[in-house]
Amino acid sequence: MRFIAKSVVVTGGASGMGEAVAKRLAREGASVLVADFNEAGGTRVVSEITAAGGTALFQHTDVSDPSSAQAMVDAAVTNFGKLDLAANVAGIGQGHALVQETELELWQRVNGVNSSGLFFSLRAEIPALLAAGGGAIVNVASLAGLQTFKSLNAYVASKHAAVGLTKNAALENKNIRVNGIAPGAVLTPMLGNLSQEEVDGYAASVPSGRLGTPQDIANVVAFLLSEEASFVNGAVIPVDGGLLVA
Ligand SMILES: NC(=O)c1ccc[n+]([C@@H]2O[C@H](COP(=O)([O-])OP(=O)(O)OC[C@H]3O[C@@H](n4cnc5c(N)ncnc54)[C@H](O)[C@@H]3O)[C@@H](O)[C@H]2O)c1
Q1: Distance (Å) from CA 92 to ligand 1 centroid
Q2: Crossing angle for the helix pair 66-80 and 118-131, to the nearest 10 degrees
């Protein structure tokens, strides 16, 4: 129970990794604001947390809208009295397109969520964490923030921005640790409905021989938000079964 009396916002908490993070932090005692624009998923996650004895609230949030990101933080402070921690997990993928074929709308949408949305979230969260006396933040980037993936230009650029923002936010406030994780392929709704053959195909390229699970991600996010990671700051940790070094 590492998060008793801690309050946390989890963006993207309605699905996949964010859902696993929200449930994990709640199980370890945190009061969790599940922030997402997926209302059905978010309210389901909140009722599953409360049914298990945890504390959670849903806040309809579009992180690509700065006023919505601010309202998310305000809701956490109003309902839980303060904000200690944040897990910025919300993100969207993209279909494949070469740079010269990438529609402007796609570029703006992907960067609007993964890059600007992360910035808007951090911009709202940091003052609240400072008001609480300090805290910790974890941003979910991607291996695409550390390396290239052909035809995923908007996504790669947006996740490189997430890595840069993580490092810069880390150096700016002594009492707030800001770290990131760079997941490899993780089995969530973002990957779509993969056949077993496709899953096996991906898994064959991963040194650990499998795809990640949302729990693999929640384990590392919870560690980075906990006091066990009190001297980890500005790090972006691959959580990828060794794919980056393959
Ligand atoms: N699944 C993977 O293989 C993989 C790999 C590397 C990185 N990631 C990153 O992990 C994070 C979580 O993705 P996931 O795989 O759990 O996908 P997911 O689609 O299951 O979850 C993403 C969640 O973010 C929410 N969201 C999207 N845009 C939002 C917005 N503007 N405002 C608020 N909420 C918004 C969605 O509604 C959804 O609930 C993303 O940032 C993604 O880029 C995923």
Answers
A1: 5
A2: 30
Q: What is the pLDDT of residues 127-184, one digit of tens each?
A: 999 999 999 999 999 999 999 999 999 999 999 999 999 999 999 999 999 999 999 9
Sorted by sequence, the CB contacts under 8 Å of residue 168 that are 6+ apart come out as none
- If one counts the domains in the chain, the total is 1
Residue 10 Cα, ligand 1 centroid: separation in angstroms?
11
* C-alpha–C-alpha distance, residues 119 and 127, integer Å: 13
Cα distances from 183 to residues 41, 70, 143, 221, 246, in angstroms, run 22, 27, 6, 11, 14
Residue 156 lies in domain: 7-245
Contacts of 195 (CB under 8 A, 6+ apart): none
Tens of pLDDT, residue by residue over 42-64, are: 999 999 999 999 999 999 999 99
- CATH code for the domain of 111: 3.40.50.720
- 130 Cβ closer than 6 Å to some ligand 1 atom: no
The one catalytic residue among 3, 37, 58, 155: 155
Residue 199 included in any domain: yes
90 Cβ inside 6 Å of ligand 1: yes
Task: Flag whether 1 is in a domain.
Answer: no
